[in-house]
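Recap from last week: sequence in, structure out.
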Amino acid sequence: MNSQLSFSFSSEVASPKSFRPIHYLGSKLRILDFISKTIDEIDSSKGRVCDLFAGSGTVSYHLSRERDVTAIDIQEYSNILCSALLFPVNLSDNFYIEFKTFFDSTYREQLEWAVAPLIEYETFCTDAANSGNSIPLCELLEKGSIIAFELGYSKDCSKLLNNALQDTISRLKSKKLFDAKSLTVRYAGGAYFSYYQAVHFDVLLEYAASLPNDIKTSFMAATLSTASDLVNTVGKQFAQPIQPRKSDGTPKSNLGKRVQKDRNLSVYDYMIKWLNKYTAIQATNYTHQVYKMDYLDALEHIDDELKVVYADPPYTRDHYSRYYHILETLCLRDSPQVSTTFIGGETKISRGLYREGRHQSPFCIKSQAPAAFEALIKNIRNREAALMVSYSPYDVTKKARPRLLTIEQLEKLAKKYYRHVEFVSAGKFSHSKFNSVEKNFQASEQAEVLMVCLV
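Predicted structure tokens:
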């Protein structure tokens, strides 16, 4: 095994073997070839590789074209995406016919009727905004969540919005739909999607529940991809609903058009597009594994022939579950409790409507991060496997998001367990060792670094 890597990829681009299921924070699309070439340098035998924090599955999919891959993540949405990418299924023409029949069924008609008061009121609000009065739309975006209203956090809303919410809840209950059957409407309608779109997502979830497991996985993956494309937020993440007002409380300019840009998109049309994309994935002759579990537990289940572990853990205070909690809820369909915050002596519902008890990674907690990284490195070394850790240096002078461990701290931990540790970069610091604090601070935010640890 060569301990001296020699790469110089200054402008990596996405490979034809790439697949981007969702808009993902810190996506590795641009450096997929850099990652795979570095792994090939470490293990030319093309042995099994583990994608330890698989996320959207982009890296797992790319590597799966030429190797056995084990994808691991603790989140259900990641489990769905990785399974759909690594175990593709073919969907028959008859499947599309049956899906269209269900989509146009009385189930959808009943949901649309039940949510009609909010659907119609949202149209009224956007029309008003486009005519110069954005106040109703601001209120809808801020207080139009059914789950928040149900829990008593939006009782001070206007009479028109109050009536629309009350009428919708009454109608849902009258049709016995005030449960998982209207989950998207209640948890994401108004905040992340239009109410009309939310109805259609609930139709997708109901149809998915009737499918065999393998087809359901691909169908749910397409649902997540559709949700990621249609969500009405900055950056297509689910960290926060759109903020309709400026800091002084006045509505933002062109609010109506900004909201309608995403909320007028068709759930069904995007769903068909994504189903076609997942169906087009070609199966390989490699043997893949997907595990939904904690990274340390998962290491006990990996094939003994494991050669390389690629780890892309979070390394800032930002918990990734915050950015994808709606996707997690769509997968689990479990009507979770919504977390609250205590601000100014008052308990308020979280503005992002986060799941209570969502996953909190030790890598994102300053007091736990060093131990988490050490456990990661130690356990992989005990498996006699090589380790690659993705890391992005930061520039403190530019107020970039601080990393909880510096390059120097990470290198010191790795050298406790591995004989050879070095850093290679896809950015301008090609083959850099980053052995000084000065270099760590000068590093570009976009200069992705791989810490390569060889036995």
